[in-house]
Amino acid sequence: METPSLPAPKGTRQALILAGIRLFGRQGFTATSVRQLANEADANIAAIAYHFGGKDGLRVACAEEFGRRMGAAMGARPVGPDASPDGARDELRAIIRAMVALLSGAEGASELVPFMLRELAEDGPGIDIVYRGFAEPMHRKLCDLWARATGTEAEDETVKLAVFTLIGQLMYFRIGQSIVSRRMGWADVGPAEIQKITDRIICNLDAMLAAEKGK
Fold it and tell me: Is pLDDT of 3 > 70?
């Protein structure tokens, strides 16, 4: 199951979506006014209605942009029916590298996760949008890769949970970045630190796959 890629927003539409991701994530949907959104995007208030039909429509577009960016980072390549265990493992490694790079280093990444966490806290419409458009199909892809790498069944409960634990590691290094930096004694999370995080998670992945295959 692959998700059709959405085109990247441009111009005023892009500016408003970025403003929405920032302000909705920082303040919440209800506390963010249309005027604040327009000012943040350096746009006319009427542009929100023109492009999205209103603040609710902008919220939906922000969730779609979250899914688009995450999906683009993970890649849209389907898993081939004859993928070898080594090939599946290499694809999992490649996805980890891309996801760590996006969540830890890409411009604007620090605002993506707070936006989604706020949607989860507020039980917003973005949850269903991201789940249907990105989370479920990409989780299925990761489960398929995991199964091919280990000789297990993709829809087995243990495989699903294993993939969620892998995703959890990726997300924590974004959510808990300030805590990680303090404990590690890092002044900043730059390319060298991102590489160390990536190497550690890939090492964890290899150990998890080896343990699964050894059962």
Answer: no
User: Which residue range forms the structural domain that includes residue 196?
Assistant: 62-213
Q: What is the pTM of this model?
A: 0.82
The tens digit of pLDDT for each residue in 158-182 reads 999 999 999 999 889 888 889 999 9
Assign residue 158 the CATH number of its domain.
1.10.357.10
Instruction: Concatenate the DSSP letters of all residues of 187-204 into one string.
Output: SS--HHHHHHHHHHHHHH
CB 205 within 8 A of CB 166: yes
Cα–Cα distances in angstroms (integers) from residue 1 to residues 15, 18, 106, 127, in the given order: 31, 28, 27, 19
CA 173 – CA 194 distance, rounded (Å): 10
What phi and psi values does residue 50 have, to the nearest 5 degrees? -65, -45
Q: Find out whether 28 and 124 touch, Cβ atoms under 8 Å.
A: no
54: amino acid identity, one letter:
G
